[in-house]
User: What shape does this take?
Amino acid sequence: MSDVDAHLLIVDDDERIRSLLQKFLIRNGFLVSAARDAAHARRLLSGLDFDMIVMDVMMPGEDGVSLTRDLRQTMSTPILLLTAKGETTDRIAGLEAGADDYLSKPFEPKELLLRINAILRRMPEPEAKDAAPKVLSLGPIRYDIDRGELWRGDEIVRLTATESQLMKIFSALPGEAISRAKLVEDLGRDRGQAQERAVDVQITRLRRKLESDPKQPRYLQTVRGAGYMLAPD
Assistant: This one.
């Protein structure tokens, strides 16, 4: 993650400190939102995604340690706790609640900046496989995207070269309709109605390998006026 594109949430009941931190971090390239207490922070967290939370421990109502412990039930967003308390037991309490780091007041703004950047650098980048699964499930059939292989149980389903191309095209956009003209183009064919009809024939053949009832397709669907769509489980 690039530090400068990170969105931080500052939670502190002291308006002066909250404002100073917000201005300082904005000057250092961060997008910053601020909350005055735990309840306000919860409202912001319910509607926005943050890359990190910088939170005071001593606040009226729900304190920072309690809020940290509760947030850890549902999210892994890194949390840096700020407090006037410097005792070891208090630091341990914050870390046991799920905080990633702990900084005692008063502190140098530069040290806070260094700690924030250090935590953000430790955060893993989102993996591509989260956005695009490597295996698509189509009922009893599974399609291995990386290998371009179609399997039914332990048996591979043989695909022609055109069928294999079609599966690669559809698997790149699961759940999205692809027009016949686009399929012709992606297959490298000349444009025209004859080629679009040829695609229809190939779709019919492919359905025989994917569907339990090719006449009532569940996974390789016709989308009226839009084309064809692969709809995995």
